Amino acid sequence: MSAAPLHSGFLTHKRMMFAWLALLLVLAVAAAWYWQEMLPPSAVDLGFSYGLGTLALVIMLWLTWFGVRKRSYAKGAGRLKAWLSAHVYLGLSLVFLVPLHGGFTIAPDIHGIAYVLVLVTVFTGLFGVAFYGFYPRRVTANREGLTFDAMLKRIAEIDIELRGLSTQLSEAANNIVRREAESGRIGGGVGILFARPINKARRARQALLRLNLDSDAGNRAAALLESKAAVVDRLQRDIQMRSRLRAWLLLHVPLSLATLAAVIAHAAGMLMFGLGSV
Amino acid sequence: MSQVQVAIVGSGPAGLSAGARAAVRGLSHVVLERTEQPSNTIFRFQKGKHVMAQPAHTPLRSEIPFEDGRREDVLAAWLARAEELGVNFRFNSEVTGITGSRGDFVISLADGEEVRAETVVLAVGLQGNLNKLRVPGAELPHVGYQLDDPDEFEHERIAVIGGGDASIENALALAEHNEVTIINRSDEFARAKSANESAILAAIESGRMDVAYNANTIAIEPDTLVLETPEGEARIPCERIIARLGAAPPRKLVEACGVEFPTEERNALPEVSPQYESNVPGLYVVGALGGFPLIKQALNQGYEVIEHIVGEDVEPADAPLLREKISAAQGWDVDGFLEAVRTRVPIFAELNALVLRDTMLESEVHSFTDGEIVFRRNDYTNSLYVVIEGAVRIHLDDEMPPKASVQLGQGAFFGEMGLISGRRRNATVSAIGNALLLEVPRRRMITLRASVPSVREAMDREAVARSIQSHLAPGLDRDSIDDIAAAATIHNWSKGQVLFSEGEEGDSLHLIRRGSVLVRKKIGDHDVVLNYVAAGNYVGEMALVSGEPRNATVAAAADCETIRIERDDFNRLMDRHPDLRTEIEQVREARAAITARMAESPDQGSLIEFLVDQGGKEATDILLIDESLCVGCDNCEKACAGTHGGITRLDREAGPTYADMHVPTSCRHCEHPHCMSDCPPDAIKRAMGGEVYITDACIGCGNCQRNCPYDVIQMANPQMGERGWLASLLGGMAGKRAEVSDGPKQAVKCDMCLDIDGGPACVRACPTGAAIRVHPSEVIELVTGSGR
Ligand SMILES: Cc1cc2nc3c(=O)[nH]c(=O)nc-3n(C[C@H](O)[C@H](O)[C@H](O)COP(=O)(O)OP(=O)(O)OC[C@H]3O[C@@H](n4cnc5c(N)ncnc54)[C@H](O)[C@@H]3O)c2cc1C
Ligand code: HEM
Ligand code: HEM
Ligand code: SF4
Ligand code: SF4
């Protein structure tokens, strides 16, 4: 097809226009760097460093501004998708621009801290992009058309029915069933980012089966626990994936602010006292 | 009872106002009311509902006071006033029929009694009579036909009878605290809105509710409901039965009184004289039943009808409005203008004086100077214009000098295509010299087409010829089209109906003038969707040209109207207009290409079918979310809330998904918006760009919410205050779908960010590009195109 596609994601926005622009910027800066390296050392002053540092700072400020732009709903030029596209590719260009500016030196001082922070922020950004590419389809597939609330509701319904069975169960069985039906927790917390918690409904079902019940109520309870376990699995996967889709931002945003602070400190130091004074 | 001078049937605002005026005039009268209190329609409004006095500029003339206020206060004021004037009510008196004539009417009541009257005023409104069960035991006290407050009942076994939206909603609400069985006469809940259908199926699936399918009620006993089912007789124990069987339209009753309706159409109105008298002398019709859907109008008419009955010649309360309207046309007075409309405009020639007057009240008078544009091609307006004086030029395309331009003179109408198709204007119209035009709004034209056969016939005769001219033979003059147009026929198809099937002989072509169709073909064992064709295009040309049998099946995707042209006529048209042959060849090639592509990947066909079904068939703009890109950040909802008083009009998560395409709960901006059809103050409008939006005239009745098949309208207080980005950054909360809030509730829905630069905020705020808005014509491109 020759016409621009009707619909594309932020990475491919406008046939990756911003990737090309970022590349162009990087090439231009590289050329300038090469040109000034060619000059006799006497002619080199800090002009290039100042210039490139300022460029990096401007880019940083603009990248941070994204957080504000994201929330200016009424005004705001163009689509946020275009902004994110530019955000990602310009952000990536820092990986090249900053070392060039710093002369590939790194030391455990404020300059080095700024340098490392930029890289870490960019790195978290990359994580975000990877998550954004990986999870959305899986979240949808996992839900099979159910909404989050519908899954919770389903669990609540199963719990009601389980509680209803309690009078018909033996005391031991009843203990297991009631504890499960009344726990009301499916497991969450920060841990779920890394591993899914134990599925208690499934454990309760196994405990119930170990009692070797052979009553209608017992079978029904086991079947209900089975379907509850399936919903809980699904919910846990859902929560895990959706948490991952968000959690990286909790690193990305504070890091970007810390970076900005460090860079400003560095630049201020440079402007006021010159190299080596901080 | 001895004979009264006036019997008033119904004590809504119209009947009450008539009763009050009759009392003041000292007429002997009786107000017959079916229920046990006056104004049942208003009485049944939601508790605390804010009743609004629309239209704001119409003056009130009634013995009954009325201004904006809570339902309770409005009713209390009415009652107090009625009592003060000595209005004579007779409650629990359902009228079942009226016989006789002026001077001697006999009114029969449901309880078998009769009332005699010299004149009768029918003011029964539009709510109709609730259908009741006709089985032994139906009169038992635990059987109800409506449900005001589901929380009234707890821990009861309740059977809800009916498979429609009302019964589903009642059953779901009751199931919160009761054991509910829903009794459905058929084997599915297909009649209900899809949201209700899935909710009830989920409730049944999870065991929160029992169901009996294919069940007919045969008897009711004090604590048992007896059903006839395919498995034999079933007995359902229950302490309460709620039967929601719908309402018989009041039309039946009105016809039983001898009043005639001009057409069979659902929204046809009884014909009445300027004095509100029907074809039965001495029998008058006022209020919502007569086509005046607002309280203030009903109150005014109740007053006026009594004046007419005593022979007083009153000028209607809104006469000054009419005078002001017509003053826009310099040099005209009201009577002269009305006369000019009747004598000059053939489509309105047979309107009676009252209807003509109301048409004028709702219409606008415009005068244009030479060259001034009336509307442009691609505008989304859908009113109809008639030329009172002067002439206009229709430019069918934008080429300069216009290749096809037509001139219309005094008495002609234009703009009917947008009205009929619900789509963009397909021509630009400008004035020639000074032109005086009357713009009649869409709703009024729909009522006129439904109620006055002559309007429909005269319009269609002309509209068919114009459709053929503009879609098939632009440039051909009208003389060479008229005979073909006269032979063409108009066909209506309801959703799903087949226009023609694969393998049939191709004997005709269909020009779609309203709705859209899906083209399918059997490939192997599969029924593959090959194409989607919308209004303004034709189908069936291939077989006509090739002479071979139909190579695909075409069925209506939404309710459709097509103009059918027979083969011989079509051949004659091609002979007269050779360009048509070339164009058909081009269309054929383009379609063959799409067909080939679609046949290769039947999945795409299924996706098209899904999108068409989810609103594509009638949408002008539909919000889609590409689930392969959506990260669930809800920035779309936050943007919507942030730009619309804190209430998001879209629910991203809700709605169906197919092959990664999610259709969230959000307005489709339908070609023929269902929401518009019963809006009493006509508060729902369509803007130039196609946006369907709700104005401040909304009285919060909720009809639109019920009528929208996609469940996108909420009732809320729209003035909740907006939040800036800082506040939302700090608060971090998503705008939720409207919660219960204080203050008068109005309908809120997506307005496609009509007043916001840059267009819909949801799409602009989506960081990943998952949210997109498409016009249905782009669906094929979206599905088959690259970029995904
Ligand atoms: C939810 C809702 C909200 C609304 N909000 C507003 C608003 O805020 N402002 C506004 O201006 N309009 C509003 N409307 C419109 C308003 O209700 C109508 O315009 C008005 O009620 C019409 O008055 P009416 O007298 O013609 O008929 P109705 O008010 O319908 O009165 C008809 C009366 O006749 C009785 N009746 C019917 N059949 C028989 C029979 N066979 N025998 C004896 N009696 C019979 C009925 O019981 C009823 O009492 C609203 C409508 C609805 C549905
Ligand atoms: C993203 C922003 C920036 C980062 C991450 C950064 C980082 C660094 C690093 C790591 C060095 C090397 C320090 C060393 O040699 O020990 C450096 C040098 C320097 N920086 Fe920056 N800097 C940034 C922006 C700025 C700005 C805004 C300015 C001034 C306006 C600036 C001025 C300088 C100067 C003058 C030097 C010395 C260069 C040289 O000796 O060649 N920097 N910077
Ligand atoms: C130093 C450089 C960067 C800074 C200062 C920065 C800063 C920010 C800020 C402030 C936000 C707004 C988050 C919010 O308010 O929700 C953001 C979002 C984001 N950034 Fe960065 N960023 C940088 C680099 C990158 C890079 C290199 C990438 C990708 C490779 C990236 C990817 C993203 C993504 C995907 C988002 C989330 C968009 C969303 O879902 O709203 N960022 N960034
Ligand atoms: S509110 Fe509903 S009926 Fe009205 S235009 Fe939108 S989708 Fe169509
Ligand atoms: S917009 Fe909806 S709620 Fe408001 S008056 Fe019209 S139909 Fe009723």
Explain the overall architecture:
The complex is a heterodimer of chains A (278) and B (788). Chain A is an all-alpha fold. Helices cover 74% and strands 0% of the residues of chain A. The termini of chain A are far apart. Chain B has 788 residues and is α+β, with helices and mostly antiparallel strands. Chain B folds into five domains: 188 residues, FAD/NAD(P)-binding domain; 101 residues, FAD/NAD(P)-binding domain (3-Layer(bba) Sandwich); 151 residues, Jelly Rolls; 117 residues, Jelly Rolls; 170 residues, Alpha-Beta Plaits, CATH 3.30.70. Chain B is 30% helix and 24% strand. In chain B, the strands form eleven sheets. In chain B, strands 1, 2, 5, 6, 7, 8 and 19 form a seven-stranded mixed β-sheet that branches. In chain B, strands 20, 21, 22, 23, 24 and 25 form a six-stranded antiparallel β-sheet that branches. The termini of chain B are far apart. Chains A and B meet through helix 3, helix 4, helix 5 and helix 8 of A and helix 19, helix 21 and helix 22 of B. The complex binds flavin-adenine dinucleotide, protoporphyrin IX containing FE (2 copies) and iron/sulfur cluster (SF4) (2 copies). The site of one protoporphyrin IX containing FE has 25 residues of chain A, from helix 2, helix 3, helix 4 and helix 8. The site of one iron/sulfur cluster has 13 residues of chain B, from loops.
State the helicity of chain A in percent bands: over 70%
CATH architecture descriptor of the largest domain in chain B: 3-Layer(bba) Sandwich
Ligands and ions found: flavin-adenine dinucleotide, protoporphyrin IX containing FE, iron/sulfur cluster
The quaternary state of the protein chains shown equals heterodimer
Strand content of chain A: under 5%
CATH superfamily of the largest domain in chain B: FAD/NAD(P)-binding domain
Shape of chain A: elongated
Shape verdict of chain B:
globular
Number of domains of chain A: 2
Number of helices of chain A: 8
Structural class of the secondary structure composition of chain B? alpha+beta
Classified by CATH, the class of the largest domain in chain B is Alpha Beta
Structural class of chain A: mainly alpha
Described by strand count, sense and barrel closure, the largest sheet of chain B is: 7 strands, mixed
First-to-last CA distance of chain A: 57 Å
Mean pLDDT of chain B: 88
**Biggest β-sheet description of chain A:** none
